[in-house]
Amino acid sequence: MLRLFYTLVMYFALPILLLRLGVRGLRYGDYHRRWHERFGFFRAPGFRGSLWVHAVSLGEVNAAEPLIRAMMQRYPHRPMVVTTGTPTGSDRVRQLFGEEVFHVYLPFDLPLSVHRFLRRIHPRLGVIVETEIWPNLYHACHDRHIPLIIANARLSRRSLRGYVPVQVLLKSALGCVTHVAAQSRLDAARYRLLGARGTHVNVVGNLKFDMPVEAGLVTKGAELRAAWGARRPVWIAASTHESEEQEALQAHLAVLKHLPDALLLLAPRHPERFASVEQMVKSQGFRFAARRADGLPETSTQCFLIDAMGELLPFYAATDVAFVGGSLVRIGGHNVLEPAALAKPVLVGPNTFNFEGITETLIRRGAALRVHSAQELGAKVLTLLRDGERRRRMGEAAQRAFERERGAVGRVMTLVDEAVVGVDRPDGTAR
Known about the structure:
Layout: H1 2-12, H2 14-27, H3 30-33, E1 50-54, H4 58-74, E2 80-84, H5 87-97, E3 102-105, H6 111-121, E4 123-129, H7 135-143, E5 148-153, H8 157-163, H9 167-174, E6 179-182, H10 185-194, E7 201-203, H11 217-228, E8 234-240, H12 244-258, E9 263-268, H13 274-283, E10 288-290, H14 291-294, E11 303-305, H15 312-317, E12 321-324, H16 337-341, E13 346-348, H17 356-364, E14 368-370, H18 374-386, H19 388-404, H20 408-420
Parallel strand pairs: 1-2, 1-4, 2-3, 4-5, 5-6, 6-7, 8-9, 8-12, 9-11, 10-11, 12-13, 13-14
């Protein structure tokens, strides 16, 4: 009865959902062009027994990449389906996998939409990345005997509190899950509190530690630095949200007072904000360049806007210090592991509940520092840019922490194999 009430609420909320798609489509046309996929309408690819991974947006797609590749390698005879919920996630899937995977948007959690979606992709297994609990989808998979794994499962204290009013509904949904592969003991405990069966919850670590680090990234970073002046002090404010760009610019003004040749690389999180951030930077008088219009900054550029998706890692490799956004505002922070993997000292704001365990590990091991304001950000950046030895120590600590935690993909693959066993072997021969 509770799920029936939830479904009725979803149907009543449908006009709001469509209005939201329409408004977002004004900034990002993909929301308009592919609205039918939100209802499970798309051309059936004509296969059965697919392996399906859902990664809602850019960060989740990046986290899922090593797992998806491991699944494709282990089960090459099975079609791979990847769903997302945002255009940035969709673009990243295309960029990483091209035609190797079948990609559509995940439909709204409405029974008929979910039914159409599952009938078209015929999954043998579903893997949900991080925290996406959809009651109708989960029950539909359970009714069709489709095993579900929540991989890289995380649940912040804030989210757990927010779920309390609908805990009975979510407990029922989690009862349909075969395995919860949690990032940490704390995440596992919170999933159990939410209603996941204790015997189905495993601590496997964070998939992001297994992200592939391209061998030539350091060389690419050096090439970028050569273009704007190899000896210039450079820092990056990455994956920033509204108001964080302003704080980064204020911090950079403080840096420029002491290091007049310093360069700020600014990488907003969402592409629909690129134009407004560009106007903000220009209005404040910085000598400015942008990735799409100018390619690379010149030696005189003070602020460079990275207004292109999927290019963050080479620019991380080219910096001296990395501030990771979403943390000065109450977003919860973004992926601190990308700069850590490249041995860069990391700065974060006070709100890092999305990467709680990882961030605390980096801070505890001397690889990251926390700041609370633009003033403090500017001071910490300036200190690190002036102290090469401290940067080296922090970077080495970051890289050690990153290497120490790898291995989550292998542990999740053990759960994937358990779910697929009884149908066929990894080499494609029948049992």
